[in-house]
Amino acid sequence: MFRQKSFDEKTATLYLVATPIGNLDEFTTRAISVLEEVDVIAAEDTRNTMKLLNHFHISKKLVAHHAHNEKDSAKGLLRYLEEGKDVAVVSDAGYPLISDPGYEAVRTVLAAGYSVVPISGANAAMNALVASGLRPQPYLFYGFLKSGTKEQCEELYALKTMPYTMIFYEAPHRITKTLQNCLEILGDRNMCLARELTKRHEEFLRGRISEVLEAAKECKGEMVIVMEGCLEKKEKAIDSAILNDQISRYLEEGLSAKDAIKRVAKEFGIAKNEVYKHYLNEWS
């Protein structure tokens, strides 16, 4: 077990710093302070991060940490920590690791015994979820669906019976195809499409998939899909022998058939008429 007390650590630390997803005013004071104090900043795209750092007048050593070099870069970040240097990992927008690089670095650093500290900030999935008008919990954050039609449809079929509100990220050039697949596989559910979150053209499209699909064809910008979960209740598998055995036990204790059925229905969480049907079948 590795027990971490984030504010008591004396050794070098890896910080996961959430960056603005569009509106620079949402960059927290703590996040800015951490970036000012660390020795190295590992960025998904150093050019984008440099613009952010310049805006806040932050000058630090900047290294690339992206999907194509993630494993090797993780080892490099560990070496900085071993030298006693604090490191911050940032993505282009939002939290590192959430559909962005950083997981390999976290695993490598934790395995070596160093602390990993998250620095709160904007998150597109949470913004979209709480403003969607759909039930906020329980929810399932899925990230990006596969881009291939066959693979994406397989994923959607696997999610079809999930009762949770689902959150997907999607690119504008794939939104029509993705929503069409959702309509065909999930049915015409309620959903919300959030785009350009925190930016000047922020927009929420709420309605049935079929309605949003038509409107989304002309939409641009980064998108978040919030999808209603399956509302159909699964029928519980009922073992007649177990039910009738329990009814018989209560009958032997002196309960009437009506009271025995009522009690069994409550214990098993099923309707009384269902228990009654099994009881009739037993004695018919």
User: What is the typical, i.e. mean, pLDDT?
Assistant: 92
| CATH 4th-level superfamily of the largest domain | Tetrapyrrole methylase, N-terminal domain
This entry's quaternary arrangement is single chain
Q: Care to count the β-strands?
A: 10
Query: Within the CATH hierarchy, at the fold level, what is the topology of the largest domain?
Result: Cobalt-precorrin-4 Transmethylase, domain 1
Helix content: 40-55%
Element string (H = helix, E = strand):
EHEHEHEHEHEHEHEEHEHHH
Low-confidence stretches: none
Largest sheet: 5 strands, parallel
- Beta-strand content estimate: 15-25%
Number of individual domains: 3
Structural class: alpha/beta
- Terminal CA distance reads 60 Å
Query: How many helices?
Result: 11
CATH class of the largest domain: Alpha Beta
Rg over CA atoms: 26 Å
Report on the architecture of this protein.
By secondary structure, the chain is of the alpha/beta class. The chain has helices at 29-37, 46-55, 70-82, 103-111, 124-131, 149-159, 175-186, 209-216, 240-252, 257-268, 272-283; strands at 13-17, 40-43, 61-64, 87-90, 115-119, 139-144, 165-170, 190-195, 203-208, 223-227. The protein has 3 domains: 13-122, Cobalt-precorrin-4 Transmethylase, domain 1 (3-Layer(aba) Sandwich); 125-227, Methyltransferase, Cobalt-precorrin-4 Transmethylase, Domain 2; 240-283. Helix 9 packs across helix 11 (272-283). The model has no long low-confidence stretch (mean pLDDT 92). It contains 11 helices and 10 strands. Strands 3-2-4-1-5 form a 5-stranded parallel beta sheet, sandwiched between helices. It has a 5-stranded mixed beta sheet with strand order 6-7-10-8-9, with helices on both faces.
